[in-house]
Input
Amino acid sequence: MDIDETKCVGCGNCHAICPMGAISLNVDGKSVVNQDECVECSTCYRVLRDEGYWAPLVGAVRKVLSFLNLQYVAPVDVCPTGALVPPELDYPRSLRAAFSDPTVVHAGTGVGGRGTEEIKTNDVTGRLGKGEAGIVVELGRPGIGTHFRDVEKIAMALIPLDPHFEPYNPVTQLMQDTKTGKMKEEVLDEKVLSAIIEVKTSLDKIPDYLSTLEAVQKENDAVFSVGVASKCLPDGSIPHERYVIEAGYTLSLNGKTNLGLGRPLFQEAD
Amino acid sequence: MTNTLHRLGTVENLKGDYVIFVSMARDINREGSAPKVHEFLRICNKYNPINTGSSKLGSVLQDDVEFPDLIANLKDGSTSAAVFTELDTLQKVLAELVEADLGISINISGLLDGVQECCHQNGIERHSVEHSLGFWGSRDRLPERDVLELNTLCGHGMVSFNLIQKMMEHVRMRKLTPKEAAKIMGKCCECAVFNTTRAERLLEKVLET
Output
């Protein structure tokens, strides 16, 4: 995101809205974006309504109010002068928007948000079948953000388990080599709000994945969220539960349920 | 996309937090899906969801989004959602959706037992389930639980920790009501999965401290 210095009146509303805390005031009292930290999510641009005021007028009014020991406090969800300017993004910086702005669709998967359908369409794709588990590791979540160099560290740590990285996942598509988990060199320094490593494995390997993640979490300062999924048995029971519990982990009481209403329903071969 | 998977909460407040949403798969049922998504949102809207919208078009909490425009502008593959606070209402919504037989994938995020009950009441069995195993890594970088509960109400994490703390402060100072503060936070959530009622309840706690 860019901020038009000639328009900004330094109200600071964009500072709190920014999910990465990447905006601050400079010595001239104007808001500036730390471009290394900005993930191009455009939350500030979308949420802060442009009030359309003329910046010199706002400045003059504030000076008068200040002289009278009064203060004008703008509503928290406006940019009084419309100073926020979404820039044109070139690759690889464009990846920031693709992973961080839910309105942008990933070119490689045709899916917005984090760019993968995972179990949400499992009823029609058969992505996870009998005896299989899906493991999702979402780096940067909640609210911290991640660089692809941290994504790479986790992906590479999983390699001894011979993972099947989901091909219709944008993180997989940024890998130089799925046999090593190495990401493309040019993306490593890009920061995004979050990115999902998505692996398909057999149910009995769930404990191995969890213990590997347990070990790798101590080796860097990344924050990540972990999810485990599987296709239910005909009676509705959840195959992965037993493996997670036996490995010593606690399952959430809430979760995501695919109701199986998609058509054509994927038919698994016996 | 695991956008509603990691909603943090107690059993008590998760009882008032169900997100129902549709997804379409490329090369399978995405093409020609716009009228089905339209019907999905129309059915949900009959039951007064506290939030609804579509990830490419925004949520009804946003200043420039009205429900009729929203459904008029849906495109094939528009992932769309609605949030309900009562299981009974969700059950009725699901009954209509089963009857409508839209043929697109429908998911519900919420307490798994409650969702399972809804499925059984409507004569269907769940297909797949995903659990959260929580937050890992440098958890010391995360703020306190109340802030995380609010932050995770938006799956993509668009409601910043700083905004949440600012809204808590504004509520504490009586500059905003919990309802007003919850709506401002909800505007950040592009996919319309932010539960403003839960947010309001959490912000009301600020007034008690």
